[in-house]
């Protein structure tokens, strides 16, 4: 008799009454089964919506003429894809969609292969999260520098990419900052550069203006010219009109001030993953127990 089969038979010789009854009835725990199914149906719908938004955003921008101009060489095309915020929606949405689909179908059809794929994927994601947290702590200085470099790249592509424009504006208005290191970083954008023939030359976006009210006229019309010629001003003079502090240090400060909130969200996500893993393993064990009995 094969060793694996003998071990299964031996486990059924003196099982607990509940497990014995489960095997005799030939039915898995319905509470576990439909909890896995119902919860993952919600995640499946959410994942599909996020994926659809990401694909729609990338297709829409691909149809714009500005997107064609950015893809004129290999380096810029790769950068355009990697820096596209919609790519995050696509990757995250696809991951949630696939995993939740496997969990839904696996629990509904009592398929150990799909449930095992789901559980092992959760373990892999958990390991990646822990490793990522450790690496962030170890290389936090390098990450801070990469953050500043990424923000400068967003400044360069500010006009061409509407998604990056929205993100940069929200960061600058929310954290009351301007540029990566300082407001003069906007000189790296060809439209805001002082040598540009554009009307924006030597200026900064309206999101750099001192307050939200400063960006609007008395008729509550957005004043996009409130930051014009700010780069050509000295810092003391510019301080009266725009934020002069860079966003790199502001983002790091925000992270440090909200560390407990970030940690709480991370712990909550880990707890959800562990609960999902336990439920999946419980159902797999029930299915294998029934198969071994019959």
Structure described in brief:
The chain has 294 residues and is mainly alpha-helical. The protein is 68% helix and 0% strand.
3D architecture notes:
It is found in: Membrane. Belongs to the tetraspanin (TM4SF) family. InterPro entries: Tetraspanin/Peripherin, Tetraspanin_animals, Tetraspanin_EC2_sf. It comes from Branchiostoma floridae (Florida lancelet). It is a multi-pass membrane protein. There is one protein chain. This protein has 294 residues and is an all-alpha fold. It has a domain at 28-63 and 84-109. The chain has twelve helices and no strands. The chain has helices at residues 3-13, 17-25, 30-62, 65-70, 74-82, 85-109, 112-138, 140-156, 162-175, 235-238, 247-257, 259-293. Helix 2 packs across helix 12. The longest helix is centred in the C-terminal third of the chain and has 35 residues, at 259-293. The model is unreliable at 1-13 and 65-77 (pLDDT under 50).
């Amino acid at each position: 008799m094969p060793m694996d089969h003998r071990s299964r038979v031996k486990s059924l010789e003196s099982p607990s009454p509940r497990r014995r009854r489960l095997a005799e009835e030939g039915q898995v725990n319905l509470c576990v089964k439909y909890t896995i199914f119902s919860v993952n149906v919600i995640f499946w719908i959410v994942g599909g919506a996020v994926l659809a938004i990401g694909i729609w955003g990338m297709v829409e921008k691909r149809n714009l003429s500005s997107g064609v101009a950015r893809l004129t060489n290999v380096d810029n095309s790769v950068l355009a894809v990697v820096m596209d915020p919609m790519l995050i929606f696509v990757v995250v949405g696809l991951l949630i969609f696939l995993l939740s689909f496997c969990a839904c179908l696996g629990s509904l059809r009592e398929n150990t292969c799909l449930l095992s794929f789901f559980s092992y994927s959760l373990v892999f994601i958990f390991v990646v999260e822990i490793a990522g947290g450790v690496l962030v702590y170890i290389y936090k200085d390098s990450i801070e520098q990469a953050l500043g470099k990424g923000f400068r790249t967003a400044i360069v592509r500010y006009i061409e990419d509407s998604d990056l424009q929205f993100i940069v504006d929200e960061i600058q208005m929310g954290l009351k900052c301007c540029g990566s290191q300082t407001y003069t970083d906007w000189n790296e954008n060809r439209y805001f550069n002082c040598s540009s023939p554009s009307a924006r030359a030597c200026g900064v976006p309206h999101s750099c203006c001192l307050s939200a009210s400063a960006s609007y006229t008395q008729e509550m019309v957005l004043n996009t010219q409130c930051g014009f010629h700010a780069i050509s001003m000295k810092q003391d003079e510019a301080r009266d009109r725009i934020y002069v502090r860079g966003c790199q240090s502001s983002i790091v400060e925000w992270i440090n001030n909200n560390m407990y909130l970030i940690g709480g969200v991370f712990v909550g996500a880990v707890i959800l993953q562990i609960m999902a893993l336990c439920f999946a393993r419980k159902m797999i064990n029930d299915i294998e127990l029934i198969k071994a009995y019959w």
